Amino acid sequence: MRLRLPLSVAALAQLARVLALAALAAACAWPGEAQAQPVFGHGGRYNATVTPGVTHVYTVRYRRGEVARVTVNSSEESGLELLVSDSADTRVECIGKREDETGAIVCTWIPEATEDFRIRIRNSSGAYVGYLVYTN
Question: Cα angle vertex 124, ends 119, 127, to 5°?
C-alpha cells in the first residue's frame, strides 16, 4: 500500500529549502556547537539545558534600524557566554551588554541591515546549565 501525501509543488520546494538550510547549518557549525531550536522572527522564548563545553546556536532575523535584544537567564554562577554575530559571522558589538546579579546576560544592538543573526550560548563551565533565552 502506497501512502500519497497531498503536497503541492510549492510545499515540496519549501521542504527542499528547509532541508538544504539544515544541512548547510550542520556543515558550518563550529566544533562543539549544537544547533538549538531555530528561531525565526521576533518574540521568541526558549528553555534549554546546555552540556559542558557545548555551544547552542539560535538564528533570529532582525530588521535594519530596529533595536535588537537578546537576554539569557540562568543561575548566578552559570559560566554561560553570549555571543551574537551577523550573517557574515562578524561579531556584533553590543551597545548594552551586561550581566546582573541575577545571572542574566543582555545584549542590545541596532542592526545595520535586515538579516539573520546567530545567537551563540556557550557553556564554559564543567556542569550542565539550564537557561532561558528571550528575543525581541
Answer: 115
* Complete DSSP assignment for 43-82: --EEEEEE-TT-EEEEEEEE-TTS-EEEEEE--TT--EEE
pLDDT in tens, 36-93: 555 545 567 888 889 999 999 988 899 999 999 999 998 767 788 999 999 998 999 8
* Residue closest to 127 by CA, chosen among 83, 85, 74, 57: 74
What the block records as the C-alpha cell of 79 is 559560566
- Give the domains, in start order, of the chain with CATH numbers: 32-135 (2.60.120.380)
